[in-house]
Design brief:
This protein has 742 residues and is mainly alpha-helical. Helix content is 73%, strand content 1%. It has 28 helices and two strands.
Length: 742
């Protein structure tokens, strides 16, 4: 049991074991290279060169398919040989070497427009040239360096394809496991929210919020790997649907629990906005029979998620599953207040989502112990599966392989910044000026605005300063013990790759500490060298920021506005398609549109980090950015829920099309368009429109007929919340609100 729990924790903390695999693969490549070179009697400088080149050859390649990785690695070897040769040839020609280095940097950045392979080859070319400067490569020493380079690439290939292999299918399987564990963790957080006292509610709500975000992150990772990891397109679409269902059901259950704790319904904004006050108007009684049952059922749901394979004939878990699925039938709901009964309904829907996910991932299950409610849930899932299979179309969307002007702009900016870094670096040190160039290069990677570059540069500099201090300590401890130093370097390299996605500051810390050990091995270690490392890094950051600010600048405001418009457009697409389908329109691929919305929102969230960083002096601007992103996350939740409900239309008789929804959807679409127009152009006179509630728009004109016809209450709630949240976006974005039309 302890082993299983440890495995679950690792799977949840590192979805797909991507960080662990990257660290082990890189360390394995370096270790193999060092072992071979050591057996061949290579000198310490050649060992250092081989270690760095093995690392470069490993981390540069990002393709998902193994065949594509092999091709890129094979192409990278001649690129590396050419770069190493030119580095050695131009080492004595200062001006020519500097000019070539700038040209190489431009080409390396520009090559990103050609996709992952172009990015990898550009990165290899730049890094190998940098290594040639670092180890002082000469023309006479090229034959031996060629051999070192060949061993490094072979070590990288062996680590990638033999020691730590990674297949799209295996990676997707690990991501599914991570989704299962994170779903169970979210249920545990919801249970803590249920039991939290008044002084614990904020911390419990934070746990639910973080669990929801982590589950959503894993869902996006799965969706990004489905095409490569699943041979059958219909099966991939089915998994995508079931993952989306489970995510929506889990988030909705958290909202229902939050609402049941308070005297009034909680808004989804409470789950999305960090620091939002939690409802405090009421608390569930500790010993109420219904509350005890809710607690037991949440524990049962968590067990169902964690141990789906145990749900076999005759087991207690099968009985638990049947009971939870029974809550989908009104006659099986326990006596309780309406808000608490909603929680039971949410538990039933979550159990159905878990069942559907299990069937999609592992195939048909034993049905001998099914209750009538479970049998009905299976029939619904089978009907949905049939619709998905029948509706599958080979609709390949054209992907952009180039970024056009943004790539050219970045290449020009890096070239200018690197030129400044070369000139400034020469004043600091004629021997190690290239550290400033490296820092300037790095701060531009995966950044797109001046603010992003400034924040990344700050983190790089902080990590470098701390790493220098650690390097001083480690160098003093290791002394001249070569293999002890290399062993510590391997540990630091693993830590660098394992922490890279979590903290850029930590990554910079580990790489600087490792460099301190490499300096020791090369007999060039001194306190002045490490201090120079900090100075060159600060210079590189400054040059990068200057280039970003004055050479074809992309202001953070402009980038976030562009991305905000994209999010609004994607939101409009999903909402319009879902409402149209719920109104009787033709079916569309709603899941892919919802995925595009999620990706656009993730891009916006990343772009606003400079605005929301703790060190930003513009507090009001920071709060506004956080609030807008939270509102958009709330909109995305309701849009995803509408899309999921719309896709149930062909199989669920309880959810039928209602043409009156189209009128309500038109108002939401017009308001989204008005906000997008105002964000794109401040001179726009567009205004959002308020008016009667969505429910009142659906009032029947025939006396005595049901108020909402065939439209479910859930659809109404999502449409109403989406309408209110879209109008709520108007205030922080300074969009005027027009008077209701009469």
């Amino acid at each position: 049991m302890n082993t299983a729990r440890l495995r679950d924790r690792v799977a949840a903390s590192d979805p797909g074991l991507l960080r662990l695999a990257a660290g082990l693969r890189t360390v394995g490549a370096i270790a193999l290279t060092l072992a071979v070179l050591g057996l061949l009697g290579a000198s310490v400088p050649h060992l250092v060169t081989g270690a760095i080149m093995a690392m470069v050859a490993t981390f540069a390649i990002r393709e998902k398919q193994r065949s594509a990785q092999a091709v890129t690695l094979a192409l990278g070897l001649p690129v590396a040989l050419a770069s190493l040769s030119l580095g050695a040839l131009l080492s004595s020609r200062v001006l020519a070497g500097d000019l070539f280095f700038v040209a190489l940097i431009f080409c390396a950045v520009y090559s990103r427009r050609f996709g992952d392979r172009g990015t990898a080859l550009g990165l290899i070319g730049f890094q190998v040239y940098f290594v040639s400067l670092f180890v002082g490569a000469t023309v006479s020493g090229l034959p031996e360096l060629y051999g070192v380079l060949g061993v490094a690439f072979l070590g990288s290939a062996a680590a990638r394809f033999l020691l730590v292999p990674e297949t799209p299918t295996g990676l997707l399987e690990r991501l599914r496991e991570a989704f299962r564990v994170r779903l169970a963790q979210l249920v545990s957080a919801q249970l803590q929210l249920l039991d939290a006292g008044p002084e614990e509610i904020d911390e419990a709500l934070k746990g639910v919020r973080e669990g929801t975000a982590r589950l959503h992150e894993t869902a996006l990772m799965i969706q990004g790997r489905l095409e490569e990891g699943t041979s059958d397109a219909a099966a991939a679409r089915l998994v995508q649907r079931r993952v989306a269902d489970a995510e929506i059901a889990a988030e909705r259950l958290g909202l229902l629990l939050l609402s049941a704790r308070s005297a009034e319904s909680a808004d989804t904004l409470t789950l999305h906005l960090p620091g939002a006050p939690a409802p405090r108007a009421g608390r569930m009684p500790d010993r109420d029979e219904a509350m005890d049952r809710v607690r037991r059922d949440l524990e049962a749901l968590r067990l169902l998620v964690l141990r789906p394979a145990a749900a076999r004939s005759g087991t207690a878990l099968s009985q638990v599953r049947n009971r939870l699925l029974g809550y989908r039938e009104e006659e099986n709901l326990p006596p309780a207040p309406p808000a608490v009964q909603d929680v039971f309904r949410g538990i039933g829907e979550a159990a159905r989502a878990v069942l559907g996910l299990r069937i999609a991932l592992d195939g048909p299950q034993d049905e001998s112990d099914d209750s009538p409610a479970t049998a009905r849930s299976r029939e619904e899932l089978d009907a949905e599966d049939a619709v998905i299979d029948a509706g599958e179309e080979d609709d390949e969307q054209e992907e952009l392989t180039g970024l056009g002007r943004p790539t050219t702009r970045a290449a020009v900016q890096v070239a200018v910044g690197s030129s400044l870094a070369i000139v400034g670096g020469e004043f600091l040190s004629s021997q190690r000026w290239y550290w400033a160039v490296l820092t300037c290069w790095i701060v531009f990677i995966n950044t797109a605005s001046t603010g992003e570059i400034l924040v990344k540069g700050y983190r790089r500099l902080l990590g470098t300063v701390l790493g220098v201090l650690a390097g001083i300590v480690l160098a003093g401890v290791v002394g001249q013990h070569t293999w002890t130093a290399f062993a510590l370097v391997l540990v630091l390299v693993f830590a660098m790759f394992y922490t890279a996605p979590l903290s850029y500051t930590l990554m910079s810390f580990f790489v600087t500490a490792a460099l301190g050990l490499l300096y020791t091995l090369l007999h060039t270690y001194s306190l002045s060298v490490l201090v120079l490392r900090v100075e060159e890094s600060a210079l590189g950051v400054a040059c990068g920021v200057i280039a970003a600010a004055f050479v074809l600048p992309v202001r953070t405001d402009r980038r976030t506005n562009d991305l905000l418009v994209t999010v609004l457009e994607r939101l409009d697409d999903v909402t319009e398609a879902a409402v149209d389908q719920l109104s009787g329109g033709s079916p569309e691929d709603l899941l892919d549109q919802a995925r595009d919305l999620d990706q656009a929102l993730a891009d916006l969230r990343a772009a606003t980090k400079p605005l929301t960083h703790p060190i930003t002096p513009l507090r009001a601007r920071r709060d506004t950015a956080r609030y807008v992103v939270a509102l958009l996350e709330t909109c995305a939740y309701h849009a995803r829920s509408l899309a999921a409900t719309a896709e149930l239309l062909p199989t669920h008789p309880s959810i039928a099309a209602d043409p009156r929804l189209r009128r309500a959807g038109r108002r939401i679409g017009d308001n989204i368009a008005a906000i997008a127009a105002k964000v794109a152009d401040e001179r726009s006179a567009a205004a959002v429109e308020t008016g009667p509630s969505i429910a009142s728009l659906l009032e029947t004109e025939v006396p005595g007929t049901p108020r909402f016809g065939r439209v479910t209450d859930r659809v109404l709630r999502h449409v109403q919340r989406l309408d209110e949240t879209v109008v709520g976006l108007a205030r922080p974005l300074h969009v005027p609100v027009a008077a209701p039309k009469r």
